[in-house]
Amino acid sequence: MCGIIGYAGHRPAVPLIVEGLRRLEYRGYDSAGVATVVNHDIELVRAEGKLSALEQKLSEKNLINSTSGIGHTRWATHGIPVERNAHPHLDQEGRLAMIHNGIIENYQSIKEDLLKKGYKFRSETDSEVLINLIAEGRKEHPDMLEAISWALKQVEGAYSIAIIDVESPGTVYAARVSSPLVMGIGVGENFIASDIPAFLPYTREVVFIEDGELLRITASSWDVFKSDTLEPVEKEINTINWDVQSAQKGGYKHFMIKEIFEQPKVIFDCLAGRVDLANNKVDLPELDDMEAPKRLHIVACGTSYHAGLWGKYLLEKWAKIPVDVEIASEFRYRDPLLDPDGVVLAISQSGETADTLAGIKLAKEKGLPVIGLCNVVGSSISRESDHVLYTQAGPEVSVASTKAMCSQLTVLMLLAFYWSKRKGIHDTKQFAEFLQDLKSLPSVLESALPAMRDRAKVLGRKYADASSFMFLGRGPYFPLALEGALKLKEISYIHAEGYASGEMKHGPIALIDQKFPTFAIALNDDLFPKVKSNLIEVQARGGHIIALTNPGTDLEVEHEWTLPEVSGPLNVFMVLPALQLFSYETADYLGKDVDQPRNLAKSVTVE
Ligand code: F6R
To answer: What is the pTM of this model?
Structure first.
């Protein structure tokens, strides 16, 4: 779970690589480093901590003349986050340098063999083992491609790697298995990276690299081969139509708040071309060649898992499809009993989450078709899936997922509608009204957001010294309570638990006292009386309560937070930003690193 970039071209490579790393920092920020060939030697500069530490070190060097190189921003897996474990890693002779994202699972046994041959290691990383294995391969195979291919045949695990060699300055080699890798094709320059924004200011022409492929770039050429046989592979060049500007902060203090405020547009974009008001229907042509499934198995992690839990309510209610929702890291290691007529729906913003990807592979082994619900176009999950629905939320930079969940909820809602209509069980009048309301939702949300933020600021500050929070919701708002708790803990580091409000009395109510506030979702729906009585139980134990509610409810709690009421399931689009804003304002008030919370990374490409 790191960011990698490689460049071969005509510009000064080091500043370009550092700039690319800045756009990849969301993938990890424990340490960073660059390597380039200067005067037949490798120049290696690495620093512990964020990219600014590396920039400081680079400012003391003169590496301006080099026009090729590699760079890495690290999220530690093997070896603590200190400089000796930072990438790039050199082979023991210092003739090769490599950056690596992923895990080499059998590195211990390879390391033992290399130790017996006299190799010495400077770090605890699996990556240093791999570059030395490649150096060992070089003894028998002077051609770099052959040496890399020889080494990769022996490793098990996940990797995207890039390598430079003093013997071939101006050339970068790269390969992947189960870790993201894309190639950018420029004019007189070529790039490799974990993700497109790294090189987007220079080119929009992109080639997606598949598992088991090995490539070589120079300023004027690029070639892709099968990693095991070195047979050339024909690749398609894709043109990317989003720009770097959309991945920048646009005047906001943090990406997270910018992304929260982008949600009206995200809903609009998700609906565009999919909602046909005139014919009272939803178009999802990606799924037209399949029947509505008999059973749906949703597999996802974190926030995407919460979106899936919410989707279950609508898919069962509207489309009458039984839905199981599974945490991908559990699903992949069970021997799940999947309905042979079922379909797996994998939800992932990044499309690179290792556990979700493994869940897809398991489903395919068991013969089930897979639908991927992804944000990142061309991501591994989108390519592994039989059908792909894109959420079209645009690049999400803040580590805490916000607008991506909003887009997932929107598409899940469209999916429930689409399948209910395909099955001929939808209520025509009710759905016509619903589609009308859905179309006006972006503008309703847009006008509500500034007041929501003000309320979040007041309440976030008031409770910023709490050490624990309880989030409560019922029915479709139970997954939202889980999400509210996840957001608060990940960015403000305040402990929080999400609970089904009816479950409180079975244990957690024992925690409630004056110092343990509750954040409840108590909207004006069928379950309101039940939630209200759960909150009375909390009040009776002296607990402070913040409650999201609607105008006209007879809730009497210490802090009512009234949201505009929209129709039925659309209320989730009011609740979600309120929860996000509460966490954001709390964390910002506490001075936390909102966009890059400690110990986290945006794209979890390791188990
Ligand atoms: C929380 C968060 C994570 C991700 C999870 C899955 O704010 O961002 O919980 O939701 O790591 O990531 P994707 O959706 O990329 O598979």
So the answer is: 0.77
